Automatic annotation (TrEMBL):
InterPro entries: FmdA_AmdA, FormamaseFmdA. It comes from Collybia nuda. GO terms for molecular function: hydrolase activity, acting on carbon-nitrogen (but not peptide) bonds, in linear amides. Pfam families: FmdA_AmdA. This is Acetamidase/Formamidase.
Length: 421
């Protein structure tokens, strides 16, 4: 039981309500910009807690329709808690962040995985599947997740922040916006978009700022969708409690922000909203390595993953190569993205033979602790990527057998109220 002394030693610097829209709460922001001031300041070595809303800011509900996924407002994401300044951190330093613990809110012991619409978010197979919104709600009980929308599975989560990073300098922010703007210009009609440029619509900073400063932030602020040199939205599933992160520092204080907490995720988070998205509480401790950027050639963060990992020794491995076998048969040259897609499509086709719908299989591969590895990246023309599904997450046998699989009916995940899939 926590003592009063422990409570004082481990303060909660940002408190949120997971059921209240994020843009009505303090200590939250959804853009990267160096002019967003620190919401709180800590000393190196201090242990502290931060509460986080889910990445959409309470737009998704625990229900049996995916209309909320269909209509989600993506101009408002991701909702990050912070920034947190660390005393003594200066540009060129390395900020060391220890992730000590991650927990769900007692009053919100559930999360969700979503397939987003082709024209509102997309995902790995947005074009191949002409994606329509679908959703699975997961009940989170201790370390385990189960879902009424994907029966027959139960697995241990590797809970982690999908998004964590330091604030960019003005120079780095300008670099991001320039290079991503050039990409957008080259693919102006792409659906889903190849990138998301600065957009004042939906921008939010949960602090009282001078109107001129706020106008600058919303006009220039970088969207949080991709990972970049500072960290950001990298969705590294083993960055769970016990992990250590080494971030380059670009502004005084480093200004650390975190959000997009995941209860579990497969390598790749393929459906875009592919993890088990959750609100929760994360506990940190930090330290500083002076001059760490130069000492470690720190162009991007370095991570020391957690030693905690679910023990699933038996895995069914699907291979993919750089040929569009599930499409037009086109040969690609050493394209690992194509190979990953083919491995995932092979796994989805297999799970459909067992009785799961395509949407259930897609959601499951996104949320469960599947592992993906690059098998070969030197044997022209075919890169080879593998995707491994732990067999122990199922309450029924999924291994190939001479008689095939008995016909099973696992129902369907939550779909749109108009029935479209």
């Amino acid at each position: 039981m926590a003592t009063e002394a422990n409570s004082v030693a481990h303060p909660t610097l940002i408190e949120v309500d997971p059921f209240i829209p994020a843009d009505q709460q303090k200590g939250i922001h959804n853009r990267w910009h160096p002019d967003i001031p620190a919401f709180a300041t800590v000393k190196p070595g201090q242990t502290f807690k931060i509460q986080c809303v889910d990445w959409t800011g309470a737009q998704i509900g625990n229900n049996d329709t995916s209309d909320d996924i269909k209509n989600v407002d993506l101009t408002k994401v991701h909702n990050l808690s912070g920034p947190i300044a660390v005393e003594g951190a200066e540009p060129g330093d390395c900020l060391v962040v220890d992730i000590l613990d991650i927990n769900v809110f007692d009053k919100m012991p559930w999360g969700y995985t979503g397939i987003f619409e082709l024209e509102n978010g997309g995902g790995l197979f947005a074009r191949e599947f002409n994606s329509k919104a679908a959703k699975a709600i997961w009940d989170l009980n201790g370390v385990y997740a189960t879902s009424r929308h994907i029966p027959g599975v139960r697995f241990a989560g590797v809970t982690h922040p999908g998004l964590i990073g330091t604030a960019p300098s003005a120079e780095l922010l300008a670099t991001w916006n320039k290079r991503e703007g050039e990409l957008i210009s080259l693919h102006a009609t792409s659906i889903p978009p190849v990138a998301y440029g600065p957009n004042p619509t939906g921008a939010y900073v949960g602090q009282n700022l001078d109107p001129k400063v706020m106008e600058k932030i919303v006009r220039e602020g970088a969207r949080t969708i991709p990972g970049r040199e500072h960290g950001g939205n990298c969705d590294i599933k083993n960055l769970s409690k016990g992990s250590r992160c080494y971030f380059p520092v670009f502004v005084k204080g480093a200004n650390l922000s975190v959000g997009d907490l995941h209860f579990s995720q497969g390598d790749g988070e393929m459906s875009f909203c592919g993890a088990i998205e959750m609100a929760g509480i994360i506990t940190f401790s930090t330290s500083i390595i002076k001059g760490g950027v130069e000492k470690f050639a720190l162009k991007q963060p370095i991570f020391l993953p957690s030693p905690i990992d679910p023990l699933y020794s038996s895995k069914l491995v699907f291979e993919g190569i750089g040929v569009d076998i599930h499409g037009d048969g086109k040969q690609y040259n050493m394209d690992a993205s194509v190979a990953y897609k083919q491995a995932a499509l092979n796994a989805i086709a297999y799970l459909m033979k067992i009785g799961y719908t395509r949407e259930q299989a897609y959601l499951l591969l996104s949320a469960a602790p599947v592992e993906s590895h690059v098998g070969a990246i030197v044997d022209s023309p075919n890169a080879c990527v593998t995707l491994a599904i732990p067999t122990g997450i199922f309450d029924h046998d999924i291994l190939p057998n001479p008689n095939g699989f008995p016909k099973r009916n696992f129902g369907q995940c939550a779909i749109r109220s108009d029935g479209a899939v």
